Amino acid sequence: MPKLSAARIRRALPTGRRLVAASVATVLVAATVGWAVWPEQPSFTVRSALLPVPAGPTGGEPVPLDTSFFLPEDASADRRVPAVLLAHGFGGTKDSVRTDAEELTEQGYAVLTWTARGFGRSGGQIHLNSPDHEVRDAQRLLDWLATRPEVRTDAEGDPTVGVVGGSYGGGLALLLAAQDQRVDAIVPMITWNDLPRAFLPESTGRPPTDGVFKKGWAGVFFGSGAAPTGLAGLTGADPAAGGADAENGTADGRPAPDAPASQDVPPSTAAPGVPPPTADPACGRFAADVCAAYLRIAATGRADQAAVDLLRRSSPAPVLDRIKAPTLLVQGEADSLFPLAEADANARGIAATGTPVRVAWFTGGHDGGDGPKTDSDRVKYLTVQWLNHYVKGEGDAPGDDFTWSRIAGFDALDRGLVATGYRTTEYPGTAGDQRREITVTGPAQPVANPPGGNPAAISSVPLAGAFSSLLDGIAGDLPGQHARFDSAPLDEAVDVVGAPTVSIRAASPTGEAVLFVKLYDVDPNGAASLPNGLVAPVRLTGLPERIEQAQPVTVTLPAIVRRIEAGHRVRIVVATSDQAYATPAEPTVHTVAPGDGPVVLPTVAGDPIPTTATVWRWVLAGLLATIVVGLVVVVAVLRRRHRRQDSSIHPAYAGTPLAVRQLRKEYADGFVAVSNVDFEVHPGQVVGLLGPNGAGKTTTLRVLMGLTQPTAGEIYVFGHRLVPGSPVLSRIGALVEGPGFLPHLSGLENLKAYWRATGRPEAEAHFEQALEIAGLGASVHRRIKNYSHGMKQRLAIAQAMLGLPELLVLDEPTDGLDPPQIAEMRRVLQRYATDGRAVLVSSHLLAEVEQTCTHAVVVNKGRIVASGPVDEIVGESPSVLFDVTDPAAARTVLERLDGVRVLPDSNGQLVVDTNGTARSEVVAELVRAGVGVDRVVPRRRLEDAFLALVGENSRGSGDR
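Below the sequence we write its predicted structure tokens.
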């Protein structure tokens, strides 16, 4: 497909000025629902009816379709409106998309929703979007729309109409546009290109007959169609979708007019949604040929050509050249059912004929739902923008920019995730427009295929791909069933946008192997993340018995959007089993090794998409200016004082961010808060300052920040002796004694005012990096007086990081943060302590210090009682604590292992002395015995060491 280039999305996205006009003149488009303030909601009517459609190409009793027709209240024969055909996902009904129908109606469209045949109250059987059944049903709905006097037409029998749908509904949109040229525009979401390839993928390019059966998703699909009433909305994860009740009526609460009698047909002889008594109970409401194909594939794990041909009949791939309707393809990044490559194939096939095409990736999908609100709003906006131009005939051409997004942090308002969108004027496809090559190494390794394919590794779970982030290496990839090949730590971050490729070699005594190739992002602490649980299944044949004779094979991994940070490693895992796929039942042992080339990571250079900001009132501009002038005066005075300071550098500490030497602080009343504190913080370290209440921690930090003078001792920052007002303080970022902000200013205004007070150029502030760390999203534009304590804490941390200081000093930085935010803060601090920077953090959360800090300084009664690496302070743990699903069974298994001893009197917990046996071997033995292992941790923790150092009943000196 040629590169797609057009007008940038900047012209289409709303600006603050346009928002003002829109809030007065009309309802803002669906993408900015969360930002708009609507004085009143337009009402609409909803009419429901059972519409008869032909049974199929060979005739038969008409099939009733359960429909709802949404019509703007002001639509009439004199004021006709364009229409939207809105399709639901597999297993859903018309009610699954009711909220979307209402939003589109409010945008001025007549919307027709229906329950596809074989689901809900509609009759007929499920043919998987067959051109002769479901697609022809949709054509009959187009005919019906053309007869409505309120619907605009392009010609007699030709309604002005767009088709929108997600998953099953998205496939219907593509197939309908190919079969009926009356369709003016389509928006297919999270849908497929080639159904046999989607359910029988093979990542080296082999045909679906050699594919690896995606049994998890296929079982979910078949189960939802075979169940008596289906599992409503099961795979209808439309990015623009929302739930609603099935009651009909107007938006203002008035009952809807009854549907014309001619639209009603008697229900089928069976109860609505229930298969007739003569139906095969193994097939439910599936058509016989579809059911038979599924049963054959599920029984053998392989597809015959007849099954492939049947599934391809319901695929857009063969008919993309017939689609002339402008197409907006929206695909989810968290989607193990229909990954990004499906939308890429659709885009290339449609654009090849000259049809306008635009591609948008978002962070949701079948496994990720709608994604963060910032992302779902963007998708809604793009959808309405597309329909407004190509169906309604309003607005500039949307263009064919490519947009994508990735998770950027947390929203401090609702504590949900925030996604950042990006755009580029040319669509690069899943291959990206740039490449980064990473070498992974490791010896050839044997991997066992388990008998019966069980126990199996877990990488993705249908409808819950993010579940993979909860799995560690032991639970996700089973010992003995996978090989690992790692890269060196990355020297710089890589933003992966597209499908990575990797070369592997394999050997097997059977000559054939089914393998699952995965790409992990491994942080410096060894925690491995599998992006969205996506894997690349391969079936290799003609393999030699010895790995030395094996030829390299290139594997195309699923397309992802992922930022792999500097210092992280890339890990390639090759496994023999996966819970989501069918694998050979015969046990055998394969050998795998890296191929002859690097891992290729595609990247795309794009511009961030600005989020819509609230319109600000500038009534406090004068006050802000006064504050800024006052701060400038203060800075000027301080600078004059700085000129009189000692500028000499202690040569022993010139490269040390912080050196505290024999610090003592005694108050006038004789109270000694700190008697003798002596420690250093070196580049790359995250140092935790620990101690009971009153131990002297806060006093030490106050002296460090020049807030109070020490009685004795010295503090050096990069060799400069620290005194109040010292110029070297500009190299320190600090949060001590809680955040303090001007309540009438917004968060961003506070940050800018603070930075202007430093007198340094704005370019050195790095506002974007600091705000990304804060994760406040659009809330950064709200006044501080409306902030919660946690939001103020996050903003204070961002303020401390302005200018990316070389030494960061934080007092209780996680105060007011919830567990996900605390985990994110942990990663932030670890990333920050790079490139010569260092962090000193005081905290009472010992578990967080143990996970976050490289070193610790323990203070008690004004003195240091221990200092050094955290691991050394904690000490080697002689025993291990296991959290298991069946402690009694686990105890029986462990007592059979040589050298392993289960300790008695452990307060009901399972505590084991492994006596040198690798923990992974112990875990593997438990898993093989069918015992689930939830957690494996050393029994001794930092808390244990801390209490041993300071005493459980220790009281400090009364820190002031």
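Residues 621-642 form the longest helix (22 residues).
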